Amino acid sequence: MISSYMHKTSIPVFKQLLNSLSGILTKAEAYAAEKKFEPAVLLNARLYPDMFPLLRQVQVAADFAKSVSARLAGVEVPAYEDNEQTFADLQARISKTLVFIESLAPTQFEGSEMREIVLRPGTPKEKKLLGHNYLNNYGLPQFFFHVTTAYAILRHNGLAVGKGDFMGNF
């Protein structure tokens, strides 16, 4: 059944990488303590000046996990305040996102492959996509980009993590 495919193609992937991101953030916080520098150094680190810092990369990754899941399930996207400032705050955001996406039943995804998803409605950037295109061509790539960039920022700053840390348990 295609609808269970939509659930299986989204929720487990979001869960896997959010959990791995949480593990990487735990290592990053310990790394800052071990090296005796302020955690804010890592939280505000960027790969390039015009890119988001680590803190925002994690926020946006969580945002894509919750918003894509909500839209496919046909429920309201939870609003987050974007006020995280610490590793503990980011961990709480990831946990809150995991609780939300785990609350969505596979049956809520029925018909989502053909559901019209409207991004930025009523703006000049409005875009309409069918659910399967929204997930595969927009939602998952965006999510992967921000999780990968968060990983890369920390790796670039000396955190000893590898592909196994990124992939997590699957």
Describe this structure in words.
The chain has helices at about 1-35, 40-45, 55-75, 85-100, 130-155, 165; strands at about 115-120, 125-130. The protein has about 170 residues and is mostly helical. The chain has one domain: dinb family like domain (Four Helix Bundle (Hemerythrin (Met), subunit A)). Strands 1-2 form a two-stranded antiparallel ribbon. The chain is globular.
Topology:
Blueprint: H1 2-35, H2 39-43, H3 54-73, H4 87-102, E1 116-119, E2 127-130, H5 131-156, H6 163-167
Antiparallel strand pairs: 1-2
Helix pairs in contact: 1-3, 1-4, 1-5, 3-4, 3-5
- Beta-sheet strand percentage? under 5%
CATH architecture: Up-down Bundle
Number of domains: 1
Decide which structural class fits the backbone.
mainly alpha
What is the CATH domain class? Mainly Alpha
CATH topology: Four Helix Bundle (Hemerythrin (Met), subunit A)
The overall average pLDDT, rounded, is 96
Looking at CATH, the homologous superfamily is dinb family like domain
> How would you characterize the largest beta sheet?
2 strands, antiparallel
Annotation, overall tally of beta strands: 2
Give the strand order of the largest sheet, numbering strands 1, 2, ... along the chain.
Answer: 1-2
Percent helix among the residues? Answer: 55-70%
Radius of gyration: 17 Å
Element-by-element helix/strand order: HHHHEEHH
C-alpha geometry: globular
Compute the number of helices. 6
Distance between the termini: 22 Å
Unreliable stretches covering 5 or more consecutive residues: none
Quick overview:
With 170 residues, the protein is mainly alpha-helical.
